[in-house]
Design brief:
heterodimer, A: alpha/beta, disordered N terminus, B: 512 residues, alpha+beta, 5-stranded antiparallel β-sheet
Chain lengths: 231, 512
């Protein structure tokens, strides 16, 4: 991506909604989205470094987990925040269409158009994007959950979204539904690549992690452990 | 244990232990199967007896089972005698291991009974297992003899008596009970097996057969039983040999006729080479064989004083006389001289075989005569022997108080009042021998063959497989437990995932 494009990104030409980082809840674990540094930032930076060593095939990263509640959304947001610190344009996309949680974790910012409207053709992707403060991190989040049937019919729109996002941003971080849930449709099985699998300490079972890792096959870029016990 | 406290690291440790245990259990199961399969083969022989609580009346009504009575009859004294006589378990017959030998001996003896019939009698199957296929039936028969001669009132008075060591019996071709059925059935082509080589124990109790008056009545009765059994076997063999000889003679005649039909010499007519009395000879021989078998069967049950026995004996004598009166068959040499070579060779071969059979037949007849001679001696001694067994429970030979009966002539002489074998039901007119000592067991079938026992029988295999499966299930418990363990550290993740999947790092709990 050229330097001039970084200075004037395409989405800047439209009136992008902004969310004030200071408005984020203090109980929010998305520490990388904040302005101040947090000790956990280094851990996410280390994960990004190791991911870079894996020589990923594309500038997208699909974050998923074995079960719900393993911290997928938090991890995706913090990884996107860590990428933001590398002075790259980053788009965080929430694809948990049936069970969205990103906007709730961001404190329900006002005047945000949900991604479902773009998928359903009511709005454009640009209309749904909003920015976290003055950073280069932009977000596409689901406002209202879709039914499983509606979510399953969005394969074409999701393909368009990925093409658009990878074209417009240096990095695209996708918050995906858990692999073992019904929301992990065939579209994810085919298009989620590379995948970062999140396991949660004290929650994820050995057999489940092994099973999910085997099902992802070559799409799996690596595994990280969330909320590990301090030694 | 709460599930969250099960760390994968500890689970993996247990899982490895479970895998090792499962592999060890599988190896042990395989080793057991191999051991059972390759272990020493044992042979089992079985004798069948009939058990009646009241043998004098032939009806049941006893509260004691046959197995209980058999266990009482097969006491240590009897078993030790058999152990010594047959030289069983020589490695355990020294010092403090004698009791162990007795225990092992008992463990190889099995007595089972069937349900009672209308007469209250039950069939008792007495089986014995031993690595030796020759000893197994002999020991089984010895045990069966103990039961057959067991008298509850004086149970320890009778000891099993192996084959008498008498000069007159030295060459007796007893159809050995230790050989299998095939060998006994093929006596026409194979020589009979010497009894001492198979059935007789190597260290048989010595009995002074030259002085029969020194024996007790029970011992003499046992001798009588043994002699009767040998005579029955010899009679069977005699009949078999006779039939085989007749068959060969008929075959020779047919070959000679066929050879003459193809012979070029016109002056030698087939009529001149055919035995004109062949049909009569064959018929008489068949009748003789049938009568001899009938006589043997009758002697098994009745004394010689029984009318049927006397009638049958007379028939046998009559048939033998008729056969002797027949002119001898023409010699085949003059006829086969003109037969073709093929017929000639066959006729020569069969003639040689027929000659051998004749020799064997004469040998058997000689042995029968010797046995009958000896039986007469024993019978005479039995009639004069005192009945001391009831008063003396120990098998001590009684002093010879009576003079030895002079030996009868070698020609078999049937006494007028011959007592029957004690374990057969007598006819109303027959006298019973010492009915107070009649055993509740009657020998029906002696052990005549030994059946190899498959050590890796389905039952044993099922036991091993069942134990192995239970062990594997027990091993699966920790395996299942380890599968349900949760991940708590980087090492858990690394241990869980294959090596080609990268571990990217961990993020500690975010503290606000």
């Amino acid at each position: 991506m050229a330097a001039d494009e970084k200075e004037i990104p395409p989405q800047e030409k439209t009136a992008i909604r902004r969310v004030d980082p200071t408005s984020l809840s203090t109980r929010n674990s998305m520490v990388a989205l904040r302005t101040a540094k947090h000790p956990s930032d280094e851990e996410y930076e280390r994960i990004l470094t190791r991911l870079g060593e894996r020589q990923l095939r594309r500038n997208a990263l699909f974050v998923t987990s074995v079960h719900g509640g393993d911290g997928t959304t938090t991890t995706a947001a913090n990884l996107a925040g860590a990428l933001r610190r590398r002075d790259t344009s980053v788009l965080l996309i929430e694809l948990r269409l049936t069970e969205p949680s990103l906007l709730r974790m961001l404190g329900h910012p006002a005047e945000v158009v949900g991604l479902e409207e773009a998928l359903l053709g009511v709005a454009s992707f640009e209309d749904c994007v909003f920015r976290i403060g003055e950073s280069t991190l932009q977000v596409l989040a689901v406002g209202s959950p879709l039914s499983p049937e509606e979510a399953a019919r969005q394969s074409g729109a999701l393909n368009d979204l990925l093409v658009w996002a990878e074209d417009q941003f240096d990095w695209v971080v996708v918050d995906c539904p858990p692999v073992t849930s019904s929301s992990w449709t065939r579209w994810f099985t085919l298009n989620a690549d590379p995948v970062l699998l999140v396991a949660r300490s004290g929650e994820t079972h050995m057999r489940d992690l092994k099973k999910v890792a085997a099902s992802l096959k070559d799409h799996l870029a690596g595994v990280m452990l969330n909320e590990s016990q301090p030694r | 244990m709460p599930e969250t406290s099960r760390t994968a690291a500890s689970a993996i440790k247990y899982r490895k232990a479970a895998y090792i245990a499962a592999a060890t259990g599988t190896a042990v199961a395989i080793a057991i199967c191999v051991f059972l399969g390759m272990g020493q083969t044992e042979f089992q022989s079985q004798a069948v007896l009939s058990y009646s609580a009241d043998p004098t009346s032939g009806s049941g009504g006893s509260t004691l089972s046959a197995e209980t009575v058999a266990a009482e009859a097969l006491d240590d004294a009897h078993l030790n005698t058999i152990l010594d006589g047959f030289g069983l378990y020589p490695e355990m017959r020294q010092g403090s291991l004698q009791t162990a030998a007795l225990i092992r001996f008992r463990s190889n003896i099995a007595v089972t009974q069937s349900s009672a019939n209308k007469q209250g009698e039950v069939d008792v199957h007495l089986s014995f297992r031993d690595p030796s296929p020759l000893k197994s039936p002999s020991v089984a028969n010895a045990l069966a003899d103990v039961l057959a001669t067991y008298a509850p009132a004086r149970s320890s008075a009778v000891l099993p008596a192996p084959a008498p060591d008498d000069d007159s019996l030295a060459a007796a071709p007893v159809v050995a009970t230790g050989t299998d059925n095939a060998s006994t059935a093929s006596t026409a082509s194979n020589p009979p097996v010497a009894p001492n080589a198979v059935a007789a124990p190597p260290v048989a109790p010595k009995v002074d057969n030259g002085n029969l008056s020194g024996l007790t009545k029970d011992q003499l009765k046992r001798k009588m039983n043994w002699i009767d059994g040998q005579l029955a076997d010899l009679a069977t063999e005699q009949s078999t040999l006779h039939s085989a000889s007749l068959t060969l003679q008929g075959r020779i005649s047919q070959l000679e006729m066929a050879g003459h039909e193809e012979a070029p010499a016109p002056h030698e007519t087939p009529r001149s080479v055919v035995d004109p009395n062949a049909a009569t000879r064959t018929q008489l021989s068949q009748q003789l064989a049938a009568e001899q078998q009938k006589l043997v069967a009758l002697r098994e049950r009745y004394t010689d004083a029984y009318p049927d026995v006397q009638t049958t004996q007379a028939n046998v004598t009559n048939l033998q006389a008729k056969l002797a009166d027949l002119p001898p068959p023409p010699r085949p040499q003059s006829i086969t001289r003109h037969a073709p070579d093929l017929y000639q060779s066959n006729v020569d071969q069969m003639t040689a075989e027929e000659s051998k059979l004749g020799e064997k037949l004469r040998d058997v007849e000689h042995q029968i005569a010797g046995l009958e001679h000896y039986r007469d001696r024993v019978r005479n001694a039995l009639q004069s022997a005192p009945d001391v067994s009831a008063a003396s429970p120990q098998p001590v030979p009684q002093p010879a108080a009576k003079p030895v009966t002079p030996p009868p002539p070698p020609v078999p002489v049937k006494p007028a009042a011959r007592h029957k074998r004690s374990h057969r039901s007598p006819p109303p007119s027959a006298a019973r021998l010492d009915s107070s000592a009649v055993s509740p067991f009657r020998l029906i079938t002696s052990a005549s063959n030994s059946i190899p026992i498959r050590r890796l029988s389905p039952n044993r295999l099922a036991s091993v497989a069942g134990g192995w499966l239970v062990f594997l299930l027990l091993c699966l418990v920790p395996l299942r437990w380890t599968e349900s363990a949760v991940i708590s550290s980087e090492s858990d993740v690394r241990a869980t995932l294959p090596g080609d999947i990268a571990y990217l790092g961990n993020v500690r709990r975010i503290v606000q």
